[in-house]
Amino acid sequence: AAKRQGRNRFHYYTPAMQEVSNARMRLTNDLYSALANDQFILHYQPIVDLETGLIQKAEALIRWQHPQRGLVSPSDFIPIAEDTGQIIGIGNWVCRQAAAQVARWRAIHYPAFQVSVNMSPAQFRANADSRVPCFNALAEADLPGQSIVVEITENLLMEAREEISSQLLVFRDMGIQVALDDFGTGYSSLSYLKKFDIDYLKIDQSFVRNLASGASDLALCEAMIGMAHKLGIQVIAEGIETQDQYAILKKMGCDYGQGYFFSKPLPADRFEALLAKHPALCPAVSEPTIS
Ligand code: C2E
Ligand code: MG
Ligand code: MG
Ligand code: MG
């Protein structure tokens, strides 16, 4: 990176970069009115019990329906919302929406159904008062904490701040479960798994991608699953796209799977139609082929 900086040091602010910065500025401005104008929507992706195929959970994934740009991906606006502090309002909206949905799906589908929500480190840094509305959502929907799983990343735990561990204890007291998202991609330290009470470890999709080619990822996935299980942590594999990846992870004893092989993230009504039609996504299991 230093090398690149050096080479470009005399003309580092190019028209193209100006364009990127303008585009970001416009998105930032539009983001201020997005919540009031009802432009966010949650999509839900099934999380499947690999043993039974039953859809037991869903991950809530936010999208922004921009009047001109169409659906904007969270990777494009969540970082902005984190910088500007808008993530607090957005995060509270996500919690309320997710709570309402899980209440409905517990009633019509599966009584122990859970919805997981992603939480940014910025939401943990906010003062306790601004975190409260998120929890009120559960009480308003008359739901037990067990209905929600909060997804955090290793980078949050790395901050090793008092508010963070005390917040995780509040979740624990409420019965809210915690998943460690994108596991293996951050500054992984196995000591986090010992120090914090984690319920689920989500193996990042980058490890799942090359599983069938017999590369080192096979050994890594097996090691992560074995270690998690010894610590009493359940494992969710992300980004399962093929029958082989599914069969290999199932054979390894991975608890849950999520990915396009089962279903893409869907709007609530289509997710509900899927639950009604295919409460279990249980593709025929053939022996995994490892080349
Ligand atoms: P994530 O939490 O790791 O979510 C998984 C991402 O992988 C989602 O991207 C999902 O659509 C995608 N995915 C699922 N299955 C597959 C697959 O089989 N193959 C591939 N290639 N991708 C798959 P998405 O929806 O674009 O979200 C990106 C990230 O944005 C999320 O990563 C999460 O970090 C963040 N995010 C999403 N919703 C929220 C939210 O409500 N709050 C916060 N703070 N962050 C959010
Ligand atoms: Mg996630
Ligand atoms: Mg992830
Ligand atoms: Mg991710």
Automatic annotation (TrEMBL):
Domain of life per record: Bacteria
EAL domain: residues covered: 24-279
Protein name (Swiss-Prot/TrEMBL): cyclic-guanylate-specific phosphodiesterase
Supply the source organism for this entry: Methylomicrobium album BG8
In the complete protein, the residues contained here run 759 to 1049 of 1049
